[in-house]
Design a protein that fits this description.
The protein has 265 residues and is an alpha/beta fold. The chain is 29% helix and 23% strand. GO terms for molecular function: 6-phosphogluconolactonase activity.
Length: 265
């Protein structure tokens, strides 16, 4: 059965404006989740744009540090490289240095992927952590409150890369995914879990993302080649925060930098 997704995209001028918009969105979404459910479970991705966003959230000169309900946050990770937590390529290290060490987040509310372990073991331990926190033994999937994604120039998202096994995983929460094109292993949340989130949004910047983004949204459905096409949230809504370079091939936004698409697949 075909599914229709309402896509909203918001376009900003440059990396700084995009990062600030993402920080504002994290704040609003976290506050809404805390008001509704008493806590906010956030799942972060890595990358340069999230790093700038995290630095804004933790900057004492900005309003976010005082406004964010830090004590009610639980922090999770969408994916991780198969590296130790102090490695320069670790998503956890980037998040720790840019946000976790500077904001009043309870250490016991941060749930990292143990990338230093054998990949299958790291994925299994991460899944167990999530099930325990969500009390989901036997349940179908957790529901994160806010889940932020990036997108690669090859159309991948999380660590679900083209032509890799994670594309076809339907039953697990987290898996080890071998990525031959990078000759490495990654640990990633699976797409059936990602689409369960109360809110899913992509944060995408750069000229190299314009063509894959256009193909993901407006091209033929081919998730084996473009795994980002798998992200069709169960709530039927998908938000994209973009800079002008990334959005350059999409239908022009309105005067407020907003655009919408309806995608049925």
């Amino acid at each position: 059965m075909a599914k229709t997704t309402q896509v909203e995209y918001r376009v900003y001028d440059g990396a700084d404006a995009l990062s600030r918009a993402a920080a504002e969105h994290f704040l609003e979404a976290a506050q809404a989740a805390v008001n509704s459910r008493g806590k906010a479970r956030l799942a972060f991705s890595g990358g340069n744009t999230p790093k700038r966003t995290f630095e804004l959230l933790a900057n004492p000169a900005e309003r976010f540090l005082k406004a964010m309900p830090w004590e009610q946050l639980e922090i999770y990770f969408v994916d991780e490289r198969n590296v130790p937590p102090d490695d320069k390529d670790s998503n956890y290290r980037m998040t720790r240095e840019s946000l976790l060490e500077k904001a009043p987040i309870k250490p016991e509310h941060v749930f990292r992927i143990e990338g230093e372990l054998e990949p299958e073991l790291a994925a299994a331990r991460y899944e167990t952590k999530i099930r325990s926190q969500f009390r989901l033994e036997g349940a179908e999937a957790p529901r994160f409150d806010v889940l932020a994604l990036g997108m690669g120039d090859d159309g991948h998202t999380a660590s679900i890369f083209p032509h890799t096994a994670a594309i076809h995983e339907l039953g697990r929460i987290a898996v080890a995914n071998h990525v031959p094109q990078k000759d490495t292993w990654r640990i990633t949340l699976t797409w059936p879990v990602i689409v369960e989130a109360h809110e899913v949004f992509f944060l995408i910047g750069g000229k190299d993302k314009a063509d894959p983004l256009d193909r993901v949204l407006l091209g033929p459905y081919d998730p084996e080649t473009l795994p980002s096409q798998l992200i069709q949230p169960k709530n039927g809504k998908l938000l994209l925060l973009l800079d002008r370079d990334a959005a350059s091939l999409l239908p022009a936004p309105d005067a407020n930098g907003r655009g919408t698409l309806e995608i049925t697949r």
